[in-house]
């Protein structure tokens, strides 16, 4: 679907043009054409390939989709693929793609499988004619900047998830299947973001620094700034990744600890039952000469003995933390 | 076994030729010879070595097999080894090999231990005479492209296996020997694919970018596209690998958790038995003065006490999740 | 907030000047201006941008904050971002930032979210006029040196925390939730410091060695010394990190060990109860011909048997370490 | 001990010569001397040092032994150290060493602590005079090829050990001390091979590709082939290493799983005993009014109740896999 | 404290000189001065700085201590820092430092916090005048060689500790707190050695190979030999490190295994008690019609039944290894 097809000159929009006129405007060296497509049909792509004279391998990449982010040069044409990441309602990450072809006087962006639009990019560009004057190179920068800026809220969402997981681990809620699944799912999301960011971070070095495509050369500082943004995202991902690996190990310790607590509880309660059972067993023996059996208060005395011993044991186990009390108290103290 | 032996000129097939004429055609600079062998006998290899003037070390590699994927130059001849991966009926990965010799006007492909054939490659080449005009370099590209394209379904199969394992882990089925074996076996398959892909990914950089063999130079974009494909495969492998390592750790947590659940169940049931046994013990004591023993409803009262206490305990344990109920309920809620 | 704005010439302070005169002094090549801001308002930043002619992307970085440490060149201007780390009262690490713009004859430092001030840096510079004569390059060095020097006490604090954790692990205190949380929190702090140090360590190589900004070139040894300091910090961080990972694993072993000790204790005590219960059961049988039941001392003999067996078992378990004694004794021996 | 000392010319052996004549022949540029020593005495080494004019540091390396594999140039002399690996009768890896000095017209090989001899290398060289004509460089290649070829069977032995360990893990035999020790010992052997192969793999790049020693330059393809062999060995080692690490983790899961199975068995059997004991306790109570006690078939009815309940429980536990049955059945199914 | 201060010419010692004359001799190009200090006072350092004209940053490094090993050039002066490692009586590693300043005709070594002296270095140098003739460069080599040679016995001590730990793990002694602490402490020591060796290994490449300081250039082979020594040490450290990580994991498996063994023992003994208790319970029931109760041999028959069943069970558990027997037997067999 065609979103937009316009000609810009001296940093200002000149006219919307129909698709077949694109190739005419491209030959004019002082204007540039900016075309935006969304989920295009194969025929539309074919049309674009002819109008702009694009390489068949690049067009194939756009058509097939599921490419890694990359920056490729086909002769004078720059072909950039970026991932568009969005969090859906259930917190899952949806991956769309945008392929951008940049020539010395045209930009063609083709967006696939994503609801994110680039209207604000066009607005921003039109608001800054002194930068837009740099032509296609600045449009590419603005598009990339918009895509990369949308990675930050996703990183923040993942960091929030990690904090949520940490809170669960140290509150003792971590020993359920659901918590472990959350840890795993965060790792998965992290991997998705990583696979969108890392190849782009590597590829973007081709747009600033040493030998760069002609169209980007007057905008070195701007592309380096994108590199810097990706660097920060990479660092954040590395950080979450590192802490998540630690969280997995720490959680295993917590599970072992809670297992140990269960065994202690089991042992304590077993003892609380074993004592009266043993005493009852003793007074259930059939010896002829057992003086206690004849005492008037033998029975209540036996019951009292049972209760007293159990109360004693109960306090002993409580103090030792085997009934779950003191250990949790310690935890609470530390959390406050 | 000889599969094919033909001469091509200006992108079109000219003639099938007998093997002994190969060396004659190689001397003609405007035609190229394309020969395909399958599981060749040593004598056939010797014949080829003489016709094409191949290096003995390369021929030895083909004969011995079990090489790593590689791209080597012997003077003007390019020698490429690729792994052919196939999933057999039981989901195991079978590894075949193809060795390709490329000179300025010949291509010799020797396929070993694989049922995969390259008929479609020949068809594709003959359908695109404008590309086949580039000669041996394009045939090499087409063969490599065909081999690499067949890696994708294998990667997808491994991803499906991983998803299957994840589903098992979080449904609680993961705590069996069989599940752990599946995890291990997936790791093994992953390693096989990795050993086929990684060396090739490294080697392929010699065919595009900087100084490349003469025969590949007009097809830079095409070889870079192969590199890009291998990059995507490498990323997918890294992703599966990473998640699998996490799955192993998470599964250990799940096993510990289920162990803990077993201990809780044991403890709960032990308590359910211990309470009536203790009460029975008390009323089994032989004290002379135990008023309850003389009550008309003493026995049913005692039985009722046992049952009531056990029902109480049962609900208590049920609510605490020690009988396996509430924890699974939580899991179910999260899975939906 | 403006902290300071002064002109220096030949290594000595000449005058405090009002902000609007900055641009006048910058044009004089034999003097340099040193301006320090703290948590500036956007208007102040705008003013500075105009006076010094700074790049909008760099100003944006300062305004937004939360940058990674970096060294960037915007034409002749050097832009350096450093993290200011402080331990607060609860031992948490607070991260502030300082952005430093350095031109051939000016230094502008902008400090954000940090209580640390740089008064001592100015004093040090004024005390060493022979070095301050090198101009802006030396001021940059002195500021960086002051920031990096403040990392050392934080590293020492983390090392102390690690030693504290180690002491707990090997004294047996490590098997509580609180200890595991401490381990995790140390890892988190370590990560924060790492994210402040590593990018800076990478970036600082641009200030010495090969091609360096003009303003730094006469101070090569000094910048290399900073690199060396960062190298030591990096090594310490790596060391803590490595030991902490080992500590996590060792702690898990300790937890498993203590779980095993609990099971042993449970087993030992179960046996101590089971023996008298079994004997009591035997003498509670209702056989008609049980000679012991008629003995005058049958009952005390049975009780004695119970006690004697239990004492025997108790010593047996004590010696085997199942009651917690001997294992702890061994530990104590080793710790002394 | 001197093994051999011969002069070769135009790819053919000319004569065996006594040691003192070595230095005479070295001066002749069209012949080369090939000397082989085994476990030499210090005096023999001194003699060689003088005859060939070798560097004292290299001689010291040979004398002390326990060097890493390496390729060093001392002026025009090439000094190569290789490890000779052999599996002894108990499957342990024995490490010998061979030091090779190569000049433009001599080869001196000194073998230490190894039963492996190089007779077949000499035979191979003499069988291929067209290659031996390349002189000392080819002899070096032939020696290195022989050494490296002997690494393959060791790699295969380690792979077989890994498969053996895998079979044990998934058959359930892995939960014994002996199995864990086998895993550890395989890791150790792997490390030994790795320490013999990795430094050599790094060093061998100096013998082909870019700037290479004069003596190796006409044999580029041959040295690259050695590099390729080492690459395959390195890949195999990495593979075993990777799978072994996974095996260690998987085995821990298996141990936890089998622990869980033991606990289940314990719980099941405890229940099977607890039910009759509880029923017996109930009918052991001393209430006056317990109608069942007076029934003629009360006792057999009670026994029947016990047996019936236990049979029911037994089937229940069997089906749930708590008695070890069904889980193993699943495993068996999967293994076939 | 001044240890030594002497002038050397043509490889031989000429005279001991007083400190103030140092600067005079330095100006003579055909002699060189060799000064050794130990734990110097600040004033001594100041004196040296003036006599030799050293850089203040280097002097500061020596004064503060706790530097990483490094090789730095200050103009024509080479500044080398090395760690001196010693094992004290309790097996702990003590870290001293030596800072060496090397100019074209002087060597100044400053040793701190170490009992190791360099007398033998001076002796060695004076014994080899043909090498000492190379001047300061050879003295530096000799000092570094002496320092690095002292790392080998420490590596061997750590290897011995690792073997000791392995022996404990596989003999079953590893499941105590003390063993785990030993593992951890070995890791710590390893880290210390690593932090002394790795930076030095990196730094030493500046003294041989490409562009090297003038003073080292005629001794390339000697410095490369030091690099080789450090390479061997690094390999050994990597090996110990790798095996230690494996040992930690294997030990955790062993602990889990021994925990499992405890649970089995608990289960077996519980069964041995439960059987007689159950039988006693049955015959403790109060049914009127229980024929066995009236049998003359009913009581001994019941006791016999209990004993026979327990003996049967005991053999069953013994064979299954649940009483600790057979598993240990297997282990013993494997160890021999």
UniProtKB/TrEMBL annotation, chains A, B, C, D, E:
<keyword id="KW-1133">Transmembrane helix</keyword>
<dbReference type="Pfam" id="PF01544">
    <property type="entry name" value="CorA"/>
</dbReference>
<dbReference type="InterPro" id="IPR045861">
    <property type="entry name" value="CorA_cytoplasmic_dom"/>
</dbReference>
<dbReference type="InterPro" id="IPR004488">
    <property type="entry name" value="Mg/Co-transport_prot_CorA"/>
</dbReference>
<feature type="transmembrane region" description="Helical">
    <location>
        <begin position="266"/>
        <end position="285"/>
    </location>
</feature>
<keyword id="KW-0813">Transport</keyword>
<keyword id="KW-0406">Ion transport</keyword>
<comment type="function">
    <text>Mediates influx of magnesium ions.</text>
</comment>
<feature type="transmembrane region" description="Helical">
    <location>
        <begin position="297"/>
        <end position="317"/>
    </location>
</feature>
<comment type="similarity">
    <text>Belongs to the CorA metal ion transporter (MIT) (TC 1.A.35) family.</text>
</comment>
<keyword id="KW-0472">Membrane</keyword>
<keyword id="KW-1003">Cell membrane</keyword>
<keyword id="KW-0812">Transmembrane</keyword>
<dbReference type="InterPro" id="IPR045863">
    <property type="entry name" value="CorA_TM1_TM2"/>
</dbReference>
<dbReference type="InterPro" id="IPR002523">
    <property type="entry name" value="MgTranspt_CorA/ZnTranspt_ZntB"/>
</dbReference>
<keyword id="KW-0460">Magnesium</keyword>
<protein>
    <recommendedName>
        <fullName>Magnesium transport protein CorA</fullName>
    </recommendedName>
</protein>
């Amino acid at each position: 679907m065609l979103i937009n097809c316009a000609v810009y000159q001296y940093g200002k929009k000149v006219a919307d043009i129909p698709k077949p006129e694109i190739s005419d405007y491209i030959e004019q060296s002082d204007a540039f054409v900016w075309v935006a497509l969304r989920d295009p049909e194969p025929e539309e792509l074919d049309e674009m390939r002819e109008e702009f004279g694009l390489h068949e391998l690049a067009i194939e990449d756009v058509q097939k989709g599921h490419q890694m982010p990359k920056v490729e040069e086909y002769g004078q044409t720059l072909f950039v693929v970026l991932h568009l990441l969005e969090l859906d309602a259930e917190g899952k990450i949806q991956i769309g793609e945008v392929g951008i072809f940049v020539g010395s006087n045209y930009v063609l962006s083709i967006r696939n499988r994503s609801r994110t639009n680039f209207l604000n990019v066009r607005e921003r560009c039109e608001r800054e004619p002194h930068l837009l004057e740099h032509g296609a190179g600045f449009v590419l920068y603005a598009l990339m900047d918009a895509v990369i800026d949308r990675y930050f809220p996703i990183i923040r969402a993942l960091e929030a998830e990690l904090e949520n997981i940490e809170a669960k681990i140290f509150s003792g809620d971590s020993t359920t299947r659901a918590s472990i699944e959350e840890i795993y799912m965060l790792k998965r999301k992290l991997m998705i973001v990583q696979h969108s960011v890392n190849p782009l971070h590597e590829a973007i070095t081709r747009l600033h620094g040493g030998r760069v495509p002609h169209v980007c050369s007057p905008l070195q500082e701007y592309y380096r700034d994108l590199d810097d943004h990706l660097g920060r995202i990479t660092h954040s991902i590395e950080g979450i990744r590192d802490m998540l690996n630690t969280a997995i190990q720490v959680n295993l310790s917590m599970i072992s600890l809670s297992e140990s607590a269960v065994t202690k509880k089991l042992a304590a309660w077993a003892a609380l039952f074993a004592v009266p059972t043993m005493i009852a067993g003793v007074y259930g023996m059939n010896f002829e000469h057992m003086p206690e059996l004849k005492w008037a208060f033998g029975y209540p005395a036996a019951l009292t003995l049972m209760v007293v011993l159990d109360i004693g044991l109960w306090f002993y186990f409580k103090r030792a933390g085997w009934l779950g009390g003191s250990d949790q108290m310690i935890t609470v103290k530390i959390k406050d």
